[in-house]
Amino acid sequence: MSAYQHFAQGFSAMPERPFLEDEGGAIYTYADLERETARVAAFLWKLGLSPGARVAAQIEKSPEGVFLYLGVLRAGFCFLPLNTAYQEGELAYFLDNAEPEVVVCRPEAALLFERLGRVKGVLRVLTLDATGEGTLAVELAKIPATFATLPMAKDDPAVIIYTSGTTGRSKGAVVTHGNLVSNAEVLREAWQITARDVLIHALPMFHVHGLFVALHPLLSAGSHLLFQRKFDPKQVLGAIPRATMLMGVPTFYTRLLVEAELSPKLCKAMRLFVSGSAPLLEATFRAFTERTEHVILERYGMSEAGMITSNPYAGERRAGTVGKPLDGVSVRVVDESGRALLRGQPGEIEIRGPNVFAGYFRMAEQTRREFTGDGYFKTGDVGIMSEDGYLSIVGRSKDVVITGGYNVYPKEIELVLDAFPEVEESAVVGVAHDDFGEAVTAVVVLRPRAVLTEAEIVARLRAAIASYKVPRRVHFVRELPRNAMGKVEKKRLRDQLAGPLG
To answer: Distance between alpha carbon 85 and the CA centroid of its chain, in Å?
Structure first.
């Protein structure tokens, strides 16, 4: 059974229910979803694509973009979402690696893709703008709205998601139909999503968070999406009285806290606020609870596995943790040799389960290196499992700073720095050092009008943590570099700070 067939089991009995409502108030029902995805699937088959062909999309967020994605799944082809920020060099790499037969892009990028496509073997370039217009819309208007959804095996590729590339060349994670189905059902049950739910969808659609997490479990339940093209705090606040759920990144919540209208009364109908894709500061977690009387549910996931852990829907949602493993997912914390560590000790997080991807596209050797002999995927994240099973993310294994033979986990220092009243946020990285190998280096954003010197920060840290963990240098910046999903780009920080420190 394909992922689309599975989702359709949840909504097929309620075709006239609203599926998606756009910012202008236009409502698309589940019958509209069925009809428009049929057009997409039928059109792709009319093009005569190869079995398992990739269909790439670098488009603005729109209802028609959702129909394109689900139509590709329905047709049995493989969807390739591309970040709208990618530039020509990156796009050339993705087209060369994935070899899509069809590209759907913004109208202004059509000439670029046609030029790249001639070299990379793309059969057809089509356009789709933010309003749903373009050459794709023209072609779909000619197609009858009927299509018999192709049955797919659980191991058949459904989506290729390229990793962010913050630690090197992007890799295409092959996500199967079985991966999508298992994660959708586990999340629907874990977060108790039903047809009565109304989700504010303000996330981008080229990333796992917006494309999978904020869509699939809602489809399976026959829920209603309030579809916002981008996050705007005032628009979200305006939608909250009509909604029951919001999924967002930590930046959503810090920006909502600035708005005076945020209150328990405004959030009376809401039942769940979810945060992910980047660490949620404890200060944000607690401030949001104080302002709204709602406790944010933080979870942990990645391109290669969808969602892995979650704080409980019913139970303690613990600040600074990403909760416990989801049903069917096995999580362990290991040392450098792969031996399981005792609870409370930091080590690399390894995972196994039906949510874990099939491998990296056309990178068999890389895939082999990233899996253990007993089938666990090496996430590259460093974590600590508490005695009662709550996982905390300490950092990335590649971000561990080795100074004078000691391993320093940046997150530990960042938590101390972020607790300073003058500090808005911080990031800790390793910078080359002639003597110690790497020097612990902090990059700090101060709160407005706050005054704090490098010497004052170092003195406070010396009183709070071991001396080898104390940064040798502290740099002040207005903001930290982030990728499209709000994650701090530590590779960029390291590059900016490169050069031996004596």
So the answer is: 15
The first and second tokens of residue 311, run together, are: 């704080």
pLDDT per position as a tens digit, 460-478: 999 888 788 899 999 999 9
Q: What is the DSSP string of 237-297?
A: HHHGGG-SEEEE-HHHHHHHHH-TT--TTTTTT--EEEE-SSPPPHHHHHHHHHHHS---E
In tens, the pLDDT along 12-29 reads 889 999 999 999 999 999
On whether the CB atoms of residues 67 and 31 are closer than 8 A, the answer is no
Assign domain 231-396 to a CATH class. alpha beta
Q: Which two tokens stand for residue 350?
A: 């390894």
Its pTM stands at 0.84
Two tokens, residue 60: 């603005």
CATH topology of domain 400-496: GMP Synthetase; Chain A, domain 3 (3.30.300)
Pinpoint the alpha helices (H) of 105-176: 110-120, 135-140
Assign domain 29-176 to its CATH architecture.
3-Layer(aba) Sandwich (3.40)
Domain residue limits, the chain: 29-176, 231-396, 400-496
Helix, strand, or coil (residue 431): strand
Residue 404 has what DSSP assignment? T
